[in-house]
Design brief:
With about 240 residues, this protein is an alpha/beta fold. It has helices spanning about 15-30, 50-60, 65-70, 80-90, 95-105, 130-135, 150-160, 180-195, 210-220, 225-240, and strands spanning about 1-10, 35, 40, 75, 110-115, 140-145, 165-175, 200-205. It has a single domain (about 1-240), classed as P-loop containing nucleotide triphosphate hydrolases (Rossmann fold, 3-Layer(aba) Sandwich). α7 runs parallel beside α8. The chain starts with a strand and ends with a helix. The structure holds adenosine-5'-triphosphate and magnesium ion.
Length: about 240
């Protein structure tokens, strides 16, 4: 099984859009894809209903398992998992999350989406980087295309490396049709600063409200063959280190 942690430089950068779109591209290439949002916050629908990120991920991957398996741990307040958990008086249930992860082991690909960025805590002692290390997941960083992204992207890549996590690359989400100077120069500058490939520029659309729209945007901005080749190269390197 090939795993991937889809994280980002911030909340709202396009992690769900990129993960759902990539899941669809992998599905269409013939892979059996699983998706997991270990903790989803900011949703208080009844149990058995779909929280929005989990729904888009599942529709992207075309999986038909129940919402509890895609989003095993949900909180109403739109906060970092540890903060939401403390305020709700209900710790993040790592047993449930591990069970959901184990259930996905027969897939060819499993995409895991963080809530917020890599250093966001789930418990007193575990952040998303720890989860990626525990599950041996390389990291894909979703970033904004514009001014400010160099620092955010560098810090995220640097933190991943400091925790021993291989970084597959960066995907810029929301790349405009007419990029300004920062947007034009950022892809090459990210590669120069971070020593990772920019694997995609997902175009900015008026809105993306479904997995189909996410898939169409990701298909336009990311070449699956390039992603797969880079992933394979990184796995070989990790094996030989
Ligand atoms: N390329 C795009 N063009 C237009 N809208 C986009 C694009 N990418 C993302 N969006 C929109 O931006 C918002 C945030 O995107 P998304 O939910 O994927 O971010 P996220 O990083 O997963 O956020 P969270 O931290 O809440 O999980 C959503 O409303 C989404 O539809
Ligand atoms: Mg999301």
């Amino acid at each position: 099984m090939n795993g991937l942690l889809v994280t980002g430089t911030d909340t709202g950068v396009g992690k769900t859009v990129v993960a759902a779109g990539l899941a669809r591209l992998l599905h269409e290439a013939g892979y059996r894809v699983g998706v997991l949002k270990p903790v989803e916050t900011g949703w208080e629908g009844p149990p058995g209903n779909w929280p929005p990120d989990a729904r888009m991920l599942a529709e992207g991957a075309r999986v038909d398992n129940p919402p509890e398996q895609v989003a095993p741990c949900v909180y109403a307040e739109p906060l970092a998992p540890l903060v939401a958990a403390r305020r709700a008086g209900r710790p993040v249930d790592l047993e449930r999350i591990e069970a959901a992860w184990r259930w996905l082991q027969d897939r060819d690909w499993v995409l895991v989406e963080t809530a917020g960025g890599l250093s966001v805590p789930l418990t007193d002692t575990l952040d998303y980087a720890s989860l990626a290390a525990r599950w041996k997941l390389p990291v894909l960083v979703v970033s904004r295309p514009g001014l400010g992204t160099l620092n955010h992207t560098f810090l995220t890549v640097h933190y991943a490396r400091s925790r021993g996590l291989p970084v597959v690359g960066v995907v810029l989400c929301g790349y405009p049709e007419q990029p300004d100077v920062a947007e034009q120069t950022n892809p090459a500058m990210i590669e120069e600063m971070c020593h990772v490939p920019v694997l995609g520029r997902v175009p900015r659309r008026p809105a993306i409200t479904s997995a189909d729209e996410a898939a169409a945007a990701v298909a336009e901005g990311l070449r699956l063959e390039a992603f797969l080749a880079r992933y394979e190269e990184l796995q070989q390197r990790v094996l030989h280190d």
